[in-house]
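ok so I'm stuck.
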Amino acid sequence: MSSKKSDRRRFLKASTALAAGALGAKSGLAAEAANEPKAGPRNYANLGERSRFVTTARKDDYLNRLYPSKKVTPLQDLMGIITPAPLHFVANHSVPPDIDPREYRLLIHGMVDRPMTFTLDDLQRMPSDSRIYFVECNGNGAPGKHGMSTARPEKTPSENVQDIHGRTSCSEWTGVPLSVVLNEVGVQKGASWIVSEGYDSQKYSHSLPLSKAMDDVLLAYGQNGEPVRPEQGYPVRLLAPGFQGPESVKWLRQIKVVDEPYVTREEISMHSYLSPNLQGKARWFHFEMPPKSVILRPAMGQQLPGKGYYEITGLAWSGGGAIRRVEISVDGGRSWKDAKLQEPVLRFAHTRFRFNWTWNGEETVILSRCTDERGTVQPALAEFSKRLGAPKDFWRTSSVFHFNAIQPWKIERDGKVSDAMEL
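replied:
not stuck anymore, here's the structure
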């Protein structure tokens, strides 16, 4: 009996202690409640808005004074691999046309059995697909953006990774495979190219091999779950995965099937280039984007608060297919270790990589290099220059498309991160 009373006393004592603790916790929570944020708006807009504390935005490209319709993506602020449509880079050569979707028409003609005109409704009734693809301007990351070139004196200095590498974005594109439409009209024997033209005021046009058109090209009318935005080609654009951005004609007006490439104005004046190894000749129809990677954090324009643990993260992509490997060096390229590739790892899409790193507070240079499914490795600047036959001082006065040299970032003892590309 005494044992039962003793157990009961211990139980009551423990219960009293728990109650007192609960009261203390409650009073503590009440005190914390006084510091809780105020309630936000109760009425939600029909089009969702982001928090007023989020300021991530595109910015003017350094060529903005020449071409006011150019914006670059804030890669350093993005998460994962998808670029939100409002942050997708813009590199238009004219003002987007205002096209009523009810009046939209796409003409397919040339070397075909049945020339046809398609409405937007026609295209949206056809078999469709959604695919995650990157788009990259062929001048992305060019030497002149590293602040060392005198070739473009009108440019403003680069401030961060966005200024140098922000002409690439990655979205989920929805549309009709171009092969479906070409099979509908019947491509004639002997045809080997298509020429696409836009509805913009300058009738922007580009040539594309028929083999690519029949492979994986999309007539895209959707981007990230919504209609393609006007600056990205509304209502329909071409999307040629892995190829340089200029091939993905926006505001698509017509596609002509032909037996040879048309040397269009843009292909002559804007998208051909010279290099020392061409001996005075110009390179045309250089489509596929090479493997490229860039560390986004830590990166130029950022400040490390002090030594200790940091996650090195960035993006890699290639017009040659999927990324198979990304390596990181934290000692200026003397040694390399594999980074982790975050799933999904897709062909012709940005791939997110991550690497654990503890900074000792000393000055160093960090770099990344990638390898694609073909085994093609992103080159160092010296190797890239050697391939082109470019002398050491070539990049101070010249530039080139498809520049994919390894990007080094210098971290100083005070934590400041800057561009270490020695051009």
